[in-house]
Write a structure and sequence with these properties.
This protein folds into 2 domains: 2-117, Lipocalin, CATH 2.40.128; 126-233, Lipocalin (Beta Barrel), CATH 2.40.128. The protein has 1 helix and 17 strands. It has one helix spanning 2-20, and strands at 23-30, 36-43, 47-54, 60-71, 74-82, 92-99, 103-106, 111-117, 126-135, 138-141, 148-154, 158-165, 170-182, 185-193, 203-211, 214-220, 226-233. The strands form 2 sheets. It has an 8-stranded antiparallel barrel. It has an 8-stranded antiparallel β-barrel with strand order 9-11-12-13-14-15-16-17. The longest helix is centred in the first third of the chain and has 19 residues, at 2-20.
Length: 236
């Protein structure tokens, strides 16, 4: 009986640590040119993304992410995308971390991240895959299991979308920043955009509705084109 109770305590601790890391985290560094660099990590229940960009101009530098898991104090990641090095895709790496309420310390890299949010308020918190579009009144569905993916990861206050291909290891683009969800309005405030730095600083307003587990996203793109996207919560 004592062994069973001890095992339950261990599993509860692991589960608590895994849950406590969910949300958004940040750290700042200084480049060789003296520029302030911002690093943001978003953790959902099974997926994470790390992005680096200029804190003042929003100039995009790097992003990577994929699946993660935590076993006691060992974090293991398996990358699905990496904007700088495609050879790391599919490679599993593990490293030691110390997680407290408001900090994550990555011991092997001497990195300390500070908490931005804990996944709240986050009505849209989680990892989503684009699963369809509605155009000219016609629904065009996507197979989310295919290698070509557009994923959007949201914490309680941060969002990021990433387009990539796990088979070819190609990275197509990304963008992100902060967001709010108020009275059916979803607003994105762009802090970085890999394809077009002139989009940094824009705020885009959309309508959103959750129906049968799907997120219907309607409004106008950063180019001014009307969009109606369907996103499904990622399950695998």
């Amino acid at each position: 009986m004592k062994k069973i109770i001890f095992l339950i305590c261990i599993l509860s601790t692991i589960s608590f640590k895994a849950q406590s890391i969910i949300g958004a985290w940040e750290t700042f560094t200084t480049s060789k040119n003296g520029e302030e660099i911002k690093n943001v990590v978003i953790f959902t229940e099974a997926y994470q993304v790390l992005t680096t960009y200029n804190a003042k101009t929003g100039k995009f530098i790097h992003t990577q992410g994929g699946k993660w898991k935590l076993d006691n104090d060992i974090m293991t990641e398996n990358l699905e995308f990496n904007s700088n090095n495609s050879e790391l895709i599919g490679v599993e790496t593990s490293f030691k971390v110390i997680i407290t309420k408001n900090k994550i310390k990555v011991l092997t890299q001497n990195i300390e991240l500070n908490r931005i949010d804990n996944g709240k308020p986050g009505e849209l918190q989680g990892a989503w895959l684009m699963s369809g579009r509605i155009k000219d009144g016609k629904t065009q569905l996507r197979d989310t299991s295919r290698p070509r993916k557009t994923m959007k990861i949201l914490s309680g206050t941060r969002f990021q979308w990433i387009a990539y291909n796990t088979e070819t290891k190609q990275f197509m683009g990304t963008g992100g920043g902060t967001y709010t969800t108020i009275d059916g309005k979803y607003t994105e405030n762009i802090e970085f955009f890999s394809k077009d730095n002139t989009k940094v600083g824009l705020s885009l307003d959309f309508n959103y509705e959750l129906t049968d587990g799907n997120w219907n996203h309607t409004g106008f793109s950063s180019k001014g084109a009307p969009i109606h996207e369907i996103w499904s919560i990622r399950k695998n």
